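Field log, afternoon session.

UNIT: design team B
ACTIVITY: writing a sequence onto a fixed backbone
BACKBONE:
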């Protein structure tokens, strides 16, 4: 029932997680073949351009190797392609050339349904604008990834309760999102991103809508939850303070992704 309302009301926002082209009966066997990852992300010579009246290359020569437990920040000026890169890693946008492999599986070789299943089972997402569905309770929001994977009943309830507790909002499961602050909503989004134990968590400007104190709380929580979960985390941010919470800082430019010493990005006093 929850999944039905999710598919109908959340269709736009969560379209990337919905296998849309098959009948329900045709989809069931595929659900059981959820893709699992040992936790290696390998990107090589990635190039992205946009066509149009004035075609332009966004970036080229992007290489990246990450393993389970790695947490990196990606910085770079506005428009350089940070969100585009995350979308490509999520399989939402295709590369012009180069490769993205998740645990040996080449994303460019997967069809849309396979990419959808990979996103559902192996990835979690946190966005600047939270994207918490307003008509579902906190617990229902957090349980959405489990519903999509067919995990229901007591097992799902236990995992949701544990995850809401882990982000410090154990007593708010029955609340509606409008009863929560921005920082609390982002903590719920973190719970939702991790509840299905993804191997890869993609995070785009998670603190852009938060006051400094809530931002620090959210960033600490992200770092701790990722460490506890053993996932790969990629944090896109403009904020040096946010970037410093990751283990390494990478800077995206038109010609690639380069590691920078944290001292190159002093935190504001
Ligand atoms: N669908 C599209 N068609 C054409 N150009 C696009 C499209 N999507 C993004 N772009 C362009 O690609 C470039 C990279 O955009 P992207 O949103 O990835 O940048 P960003 O680094 O995330 O920027 P910001 O820090 O402002 O969020 C921009 O110049 C943008 O205008
Ligand atoms: Mg962006």
């Amino acid at each position: 029932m929850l999944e039905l309302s999710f598919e109908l009301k959340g269709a736009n926002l969560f379209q990337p997680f919905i296998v849309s082209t098959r009948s329900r009966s045709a989809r069931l066997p595929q659900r059981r073949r959820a893709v699992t990852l040992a936790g290696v992300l390998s990107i090589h010579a990635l190039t992205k351009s946009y066509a149009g009246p004035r075609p332009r290359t966004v970036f080229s020569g992007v290489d990246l190797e990450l393993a389970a437990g790695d947490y990196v920040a990606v910085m770079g000026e506005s428009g350089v392609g940070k969100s585009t890169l995350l979308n490509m890693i999520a399989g939402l946008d295709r590369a012009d050339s180069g490769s993205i492999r998740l645990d040996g599986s080449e994303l460019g070789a997967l069809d849309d349904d396979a990419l959808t299943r990979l996103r559902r089972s192996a990835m979690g997402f946190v966005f600047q604008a939270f994207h918490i569905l307003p008509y579902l309770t906190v617990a229902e929001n957090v349980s959405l990834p489990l519903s999509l994977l067919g995990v229901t009943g007591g097992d799902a309830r236990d995992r949701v309760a544990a995850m809401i507790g882990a982000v410090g909002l154990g007593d708010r499961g029955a609340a509606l999102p409008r009863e929560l602050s921005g920082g609390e909503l982002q903590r719920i989004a973190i719970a939702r991103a991790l509840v299905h134990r993804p191997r890869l968590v993609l995070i785009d400007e998670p603190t852009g809508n938060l006051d400094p104190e809530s931002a620090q709380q959210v960033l600490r929580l992200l770092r701790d939850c990722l460490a506890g979960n053993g996932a790969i985390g990629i944090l896109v941010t403009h904020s040096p303070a946010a970037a410093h919470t990751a283990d390494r800082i990478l800077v995206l430019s038109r010609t690639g992704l380069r590691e920078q010493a944290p001292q190159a990005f002093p935190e504001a006093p």
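LOG NOTE: The chain has one domain: 2-20+68-94+113-260.
NEXT ACTIVITY: expression trials, pending approval
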